[in-house]
Amino acid sequence: MAQPKPRWLRYLPVSLRNRIEHRSNLQAILSNTGWLFADKALRMGVGLFVGVWVARYLGPEQFGLWNFAIAFAGIFGAFATLGLDGIVVRNLVKNPERQHELLGTAFTLKLMGAVIALLLALIAIVLTHTGEQLTLWLVALSAVGFIFQSVNVIDFYFQAKVQSKFTVYAANTAFILITIVKLVLLVSAAPLIAFAWAGLGEVALTSLFLLLAYKMNHHNFREWCYDSSVARELLKESWPLIFASVAVSVYMRIDQVMLGAMLGQGEVGLYSVALRLSEVWYVIPGVIVGSVTPAISNAHTYSYDLYKLRLQQLFNNLVKIAYLVAIPMTFLANWLIHLLYGESYSNAGAILAVHIWSAVFVFLGVACTPWTINEKTMKISLYQTMLGASINILLNFYLIPRYGGVGAAVATALSQCFCVWISNYFFKVNRPLFWMQTNSILLGLVNVKK
Q1: For the residues 201-216, what does the mean pLDDT come to?
Q2: Residue in 355, 350, 322, 354 with CA at minimum distance from that of residue 337
Q3: Distance (Å, whole) CA 399 – CA 191
């Protein structure tokens, strides 16, 4: 029985519609990508609006404390994911008949990892912030979310079936409901801890709605089963990714944690609002790279020259987009911060003007995904991430006491630069990647092809 054609096809130009209306696999991929992009767009728009309101309401000190707690708990979040995501999805695609044992085993492993992450976060915050009850509660509420996220193995099933719309339904329903709750909290002048409970509520509701979506697709999570041999099989593959995830967690969170420890939560609040306006652009490379990776990988199988040409084009286009974001934001940072967040956050403008340049290297880093997959350089990527995290920490120790949030932004930009770009020169297999990235950074004005 033929599958019904998606409704969005009718809105495409005739020439484009004729090219894809008989390609059901491509239609499924495009629909799946569209749902994921819609999810990100909704969260970017509504999330930014409500986030600005919450930040203005709480003020730099309390907003900083909340973000410090989220960052502190997030450092331990890698132990809750265990690097299983892509591995489980791949196995579900290859072996759909093993659905129950794969999902059951992955759920059990992630639940155990979540408990470990929660305990580590609680022990660490008690040892480092003795007697600070509010901080303890905020970290605890953030870390408890790891437990609920264990249910997100259901998302692996929907990814394997190219049906991410169900995950989007679940996540966005929870997001909208909790957004309404946050608006009520704002109007009723609720305390900070209430917003933390709302954040946990969103994670819990997302898990509940995923379970409902799974059941509506005629599946029962009670049929899941744990298999120790499957667990060993999964962990044998995922252990390098666990270390990579830990490095990434440190990389992404350590700035806020170190700022809070060295200069107090007010500086974390300033840094956090700048971070949100800087990182809101990071969805762009993910969408673009996800759409072109199959074409680049196909080229790798029959023409290395075409493969490198397509990679170079990807680098060139993403760097140009990054420049188009970073240059205007550098000059508009102070005005934008004052417009959105008000006078109390005015010092965040300088932080944003520096941090936005990390986008150039973030975009380049995401663009390396096809190279990492096709050249099988996952271990090198792990080494680079760990090296970048180490450089970031060392630079933070030197720059934060002297320049505050601006110093942390400089540390992030420089460590990203070294990790994503310069370090490729020192790995022989990645040296062609270094020259391609250099050409794109120089916009082709100087040809440094090697």
Answers
A1: 89
A2: 350
A3: 33
Chain segment 387-414, per-residue pLDDT in tens: 888 999 999 999 999 999 999 999 999 9
Token couple for 224: 């899941």
Given a cut of 50, whether residue 1 has pLDDT beyond it is no
280-287 LR contacts (CB < 8 Å, sep 24+):
280/44, 280/48, 281/325, 281/359, 282/359, 282/362, 282/366, 283/37, 283/40, 283/44, 284/318, 284/321, 284/363, 285/318, 285/321, 285/362, 285/363, 285/366, 285/367, 286/366, 287/33, 287/36, 287/37, 287/40
Give the burial class of 18: count Cβ atoms within 10 A of its Cβ; 0-12 exposed, 13-18 middle, 19 or more buried.
exposed
Is the CB of residue 203 less than 8 Å from the CB of residue 145?
Answer: yes
Which helix (H) or strand (E) element contains residue 70? helix 24-74
Reference 398, options 410, 386, 413; nearest CA is 410
Tokens encoding 369: 């995904």
d(CA 388, CA 251): 7
pTM tops 0.85, yes or no: no
> What are the tokens at 405?
């949030």
As a residue count, the chain comes to 450
Q: What is the CB-side half-sphere exposure of residue 408 using CA atoms within 13 A?
A: 27
Q: How far is CA 103 from the centre of its chain?
A: 23
Q: For residues 13 and 100, give the distance between their C-alpha atoms in angstroms, rounded to a whole number.
A: 42
Question: Mean pLDDT lowest for which of 126-130, 146-150, 152-156?
Answer: 152-156
**Tens digits of residue pLDDT in 63-92:** 999 999 999 998 888 778 777 766 777 677
The CA distances from residue 437 to 120, 351, 448, 450, in Å, are 39, 26, 10, 12
Q: Give the chain's mean pLDDT.
A: 83
In one-letter notation, the amino acid at residue 435 is W
Q: How far apart are CA 420 and CA 384, in angstroms?
A: 7
Residue 116: both structure tokens together: 């470990």
Residue 443 has pLDDT above 50, yes or no: yes
